[in-house]
């Protein structure tokens, strides 16, 4: 098992060093090679200490305070937090809870470690009372100014302000959509070919899963993967933008758990390079074993689910 996990992680490293065109052309499908790594023995289920008690969400209380005023920031209903985080927190660093999603903020990179969403058909259906055009990107003033991003950081940077919790996932109210425009939920993304195209295709695909499944749980975040350079050594390098040095991720991940009316569970996990991607590249090409994303991100996804309880992983029965 250790060898298989290491092999999957090494595949991510290789992926990070391959240019866009060579990755899509002149080689067999990435999916076929990834399938060979999906047969990883199920991981044992361990409860993570210190997780919020769902009845009270007591452990999340410190994260709900404004770092500047030490007063409560946005306080969502406790039941909503419990629903979103039903299957566990990937990590417990600087948790920030909004009305319809939860994130863990990385002060060093000025973007999130991860964001977590719970989607149903009601959350993503069209709502005449919601207008995205009325939303503005805003600094998250609950974060200390030393560690937060500002709109000026993105100006003339060449990157889009890319959503992690997608605005289109939160159509139940105007306020829910507006809260996705806080810069704590934003990462620098390549615009044409990625944020506006292939990444958007993945977001749309996840929303469509709500037509088939009663509940869809989504964890999204940035990755900073190593790349082999001319001297044969691996280096983790990434660009920063603006005076606040907002980190530009090399890749992004999205890990999804779908729950049917009968309670059956399926998991899918994706890693996409933060670069222009051809529109005709199938999303399946970006599926990777979830364990490899956990190793690369330093997170544990859905750790309250025993992997033996999953019916499928990346479309394959387990």
Would you mind describing this structure in some detail?
This protein has an 8-stranded mixed β-sheet with strand order 1-2-3-6-11-12-13-14, sandwiched between helices. It has a two-stranded antiparallel sheet with strand order 4-5. It is of the alpha+beta class and 318 residues long. Mean pLDDT is 84; it is low at 18-63. The two termini are 15 Å apart. Strand 2 and strand 3 (111-119) form a beta hairpin. It contains 10 helices and 14 strands. It is 22% helix and 21% strand. The chain has helices spanning 2-16, 20-24, 30-35, 78-84, 121-124, 151-154, 174-179, 191-195, 198-208, 290-297, and strands at residues 95-97, 102-106, 111-119, 160-163, 186-189, 215-223, 227-228, 234-235, 240-241, 246-247, 251-259, 265-273, 310-313, 316-317.
Name the structural class.
Answer: alpha+beta
Q: What's the total count of β strands?
A: 14
Percent in strands = 15-25%
Distance between the termini: 15 Å
Mean pLDDT: 84
Describe the sheet with the most strands: 8 strands, mixed
Spatial arrangement of strands, main beta sheet: 1-2-3-6-11-12-13-14
What overall geometry do the principal axes of the alpha carbons give?
Answer: globular
Order of helices and strands: HHHHEEEHHEHEHHEEEEEEEHEE
Detail the poorly predicted runs.
18-63
Q: Nearest-angstrom radius of gyration? A: 19 Å
Number of helices: 10
In percent, how helical is the residue content? 10-25%
